[in-house]
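Consider the tokenized backbone below.
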């Protein structure tokens, strides 16, 4: 099984499929690389990279404190291990915060940024409460409850629900608590003007409590900003609206990324 080694000796599990422009997907805490199982058909056009964040899924953790910069270094380790120079980074939900930090910290490693249900900071009552609920559940090691909640919310089939449920249970609850805390306090808003690559925002049309973030991105980001709403969708876009998302991603990369770098390679 493929692993990338972080300098602190943590092993980061990853999978890669296909050839072409690399897309690296970043999952929210606890959900693991299986979050993007339904994005694998994109491997017919692009190189798909998924991973388990440290302390999640098959990745271990040797650090006593989890920080956003530490997680970003894990992403860098995976990119180096695979041997690609630049990636389109795609983050879902809180994984989008990691994607933003990666793009801001390593602009020379990024071709484009895609955020599914993304936000630049936690500034709404409902979103803050979601994070605090996650911190509480992790603190009291309520992993069975969290596994059921996440898997049932993200699944259309019983088989995938069972797979996701099992994967969430693999998460180290202490790591999860740190990750939720980092996500709660993360803020890229004042640095968004530093983004140097095209940005795609994908929101569920019914995911109302994150819609206002598009205004922040539009105001702060100086490069191209595409915004797409998926009709009928709430927050769980990669798992429940994969056909729509995959078409949106493919179209964005062909129009905004490959057209500027001379095609795939």
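A designed sequence for it:
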């Amino acid at each position: 099984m493929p692993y990338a080694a972080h300098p602190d000796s943590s092993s980061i599990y990853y999978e890669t499929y296909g050839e072409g422009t690399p897309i690296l997907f970043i999952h929210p805490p606890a959900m693991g690389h299986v979050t993007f199982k339904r994005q694998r058909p994109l491997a017919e056009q692009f190189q798909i990279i998924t991973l388990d964040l440290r302390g999640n899924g098959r990745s271990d953790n040797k650090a006593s404190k989890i920080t956003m910069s530490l997680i970003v270094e894990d992403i860098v380790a995976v990119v180096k291990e695979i041997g690609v120079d630049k990636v389109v980074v795609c983050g879902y939900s809180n994984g989008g915060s990691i994607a933003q930090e990666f793009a801001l910290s390593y602009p020379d490693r990024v071709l484009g940024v895609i955020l599914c249900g993304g936000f630049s900071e936690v500034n709404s009552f409902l979103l803050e409460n979601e994070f605090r609920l996650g911190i509480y559940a992790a603190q009291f090691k309520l992993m069975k409850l969290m596994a059921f909640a996440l898997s049932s919310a993200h699944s259309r089939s019983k088989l995938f629900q069972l797979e996701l449920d099992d994967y969430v249970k693999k998460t180290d609850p202490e790591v999860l608590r740190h990750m939720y805390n980092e996500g709660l306090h993360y803020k890229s808003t004042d640095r968004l003007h530093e983004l140097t690559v095209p940005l795609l925002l994908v929101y569920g049309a019914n995911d109302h409590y994150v819609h206002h973030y598009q205004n922040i991105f539009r105001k702060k980001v100086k490069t191209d900003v595409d915004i797409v709403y998926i009709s009928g969708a709430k927050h769980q876009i990669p798992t429940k609206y994969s056909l729509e998302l995959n078409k949106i991603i493919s179209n964005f990369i062909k129009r905004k990324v490959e057209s500027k770098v001379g095609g795939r390679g």
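The chain has a mean pLDDT of 96.
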